[in-house]
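Hi U.,

Before I forget, here's the chain from the pilot set. I'm dumping it here mostly so it's searchable later in email.
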Amino acid sequence: MNPRIAFLGAPLLTLAYGVIRIIDGLDGVRGPGLAWTTGHLAFLGALALFVVVFLWMRRLAGRNVLSTVLTAVASAGALALTVQFGIDVVAGFMADDHLAMSVLTQQVRQNPVVSLVAYDLGPYLFYLGQLALVIQLAVMRRITAWTPVLVLADLLMPFIDKDLIPLGAVILLFSYAGIARRISRTSRVAETTSATTVLV
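Structure:
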């Protein structure tokens, strides 16, 4: 996959989720319904692209041990969030109103394994692994030093207020666009070097 698709698509789909979430809550209640389902599906798509992003970051880092471990951690977090959002989507389809949907979700969360994996621990791996990957790339001078600051700002937004998710997504879009450009330049240099070697 072209890196630009993943690096631009992930924050754009996150932006879509954040905006739809705000619209869904204008009546004071979020879900179930079309907005709830559409927003969650948008973020599920973003999570799939985030995994591709992590793989490209690992490649940019040289596929060393640290980047491999961090990619695994971040991807595990993305999988945990996928489970969480998948539960929300299913609950939305099964419930007739917000209260019934909340009851269904709470019933699922009563399972200690599901609660640990999809809510209490697993999702944080996504944030920590992603930030650590970006910091590693900055330390290696593969990306600009300010990129981790922007990524951290994005990651903090949902914890400050979930209505700030769209703002965080825009910030992430700028930081990810820079990484995508660096990967594209690196790939072109590698292709040129390879072609030169063949000619020689």
